[in-house]
Amino acid sequence: MKAEIITIGDEILIGQIIDTNSAWIATQLNAIGLDVAQISSISDTPAHLTSALNEAKSRADIILITGGIGPTKDDRTKKVLSQYFNSELIIHEDTLKFITHFFTQRGLNVNQLNHDQALVPECCEVLSNEQGTAPGMWFEVDNKIFVSMPGVPYEMKGIMKKHILPRLKNKNGNSVIYHKTVLTQGIPESILAEQLSSWEDALPEHIHLAYLPNPGQIRLRFSAFGNNYDTLKSEVFNEITKLQEIIPEAIFGYDNDTLAGVTGQLLLNKKASMAIAESCTGGYIAHQITSVPGSSEWFKGSVVTYSNQSKISLLQIPAQLIEKHGAVSEQVVLEMAKNVRELFNADYAIATSGIAGPTGESENKPVGTVWIALVSKEKATAQKFNFANNRERNIIRSSQTALNLLRLTLLKE
What we know:
Layout (H helix, E strand, L loop, with lengths): L1 E7 L1 H4 L6 H12 L3 E8 L3 H14 L2 E5 L10 H8 L4 E3 L1 H12 L7 H5 L2 E3 L3 E3 L8 E6 L2 E6 L3 H20 L3 E9 L4 H7 L1 H5 L5 E8 L2 E10 L2 H18 L4 E4 L4 H12 L3 E5 L5 H7 L8 E6 L3 H8 L3 H7 L4 H15 L3 E7 L14 E8 L3 E7 L4 H22 L1
Parallel strand pairs: 1-2, 1-3, 3-8, 13-14, 13-15
Antiparallel strand pairs: 4-5, 6-7, 7-8, 9-11, 9-12, 10-11, 15-16, 16-17
C-alpha cells in the first residue's frame, strides 16, 4: 500500500514554519511497511485542497492530511471535506462533551467557535483528540483511506499513535520496509557512484540505493521491501559487507553516527586525547566534538587563531614563518598543530588554515585552498585540499576532512 501526505497552511508555504509533521509521519509509516509516494504542502484554499485530494487518490491508497481544522475562519479543511465527500456537517456529541469539559475545567466559557469544533462530516469516523479540541476524521471511500488531523504536532502525534498507526498496520498486513544508511567521507559523489556501479547494478530488485550528499560526506541509504524484517536486514547487511570491501576507508559509520563521535570512540579505545587549532574553520570542529556526549574524556581543548596576530601570540608561531610562507601554508599549519598539542598536552592534534571565501584569495591560493595538519608524538603530516568557492561548505568540508584524517590514522596505528 502507498501513502501520501498533504500538509495545509500558508505559514508553511511562506517559510514561517518548517513542516516537521510530514517527516515524522513518513518515518512512522515506513516503520509499519507503508511506502510514502508523495508529500505536498498546499495553501488554505478550498480549490487547492480539492485538487490535492484528487491527485493524491490517483496515486495512493492512504491520504493523510494535517492542518486547517482549527476554530478560526482561515481553517477551511473540514468544510471542504464535507463537500468533497458529499456529506453534511453534524455535531459529534462525544466531541462536544469533551470540548465543554476541556474549557470549563480551565475556568473558560465555550463560545460558538469552540462549539463548532465538534462539527464533523456525517460520513466520517471521528478520532478522539485527547490533547486538543479538533478531532481527527477517518474516511473510507472507493477503497481509499483519507484521514484528517490537526496541524499542531503534539495533537497530530497523539491521534496517529492511538488511532491511525495501529489500524494502518493491520490493514497493511505483513509488508515491511527496512532502511539502513551507510556514512562515507572523502570520495566525491560522482567518483563514488562510478566505483560502486557494478555492485549497485547487481543489487536485488527489492533493495534500492539512494545517494544523499552533504558537504563533507555522502550517505548511502538502503531501502529493502518485503514481508520479513529479519530476512531484509540480513540481505542488506550482506550487501554492506560487499560495500565494505570496495570502499573500506571511506565508510566511517551508520545511521545516526557522527564523524566526531566515531573518532572520539577510537580515541577512547586507545585511551588517547586530542586538541585542535582552528583558523579557517573558526571553531566548527570543536563544535562538532563538543556536541558528542562525554567528549570531555578525550577532547582536551582548542584555540581559534583566526588572525595572524593570534597565531603569533597564542600559539607562538614565528612571525617570520607567516611572513615567508603565508598563514595558509604547510609550514604554518604544521606549527599550529605541534604547538597546540604541546599546549594541551594531548596525544594528537589537528590544525586548519585556509581561505574559506568569498574573498582573501591570491594568485596561488584560490578560495577553497585549505591546509590540514595532523600531529602526534611520533609524526607530523600536512595535506593541501582544494574545496569549492562557497564559504559555508568550505568550513564544513574542512572540518569533516580534518576529523576523518584523524580517524584513519587511529585505525591504522
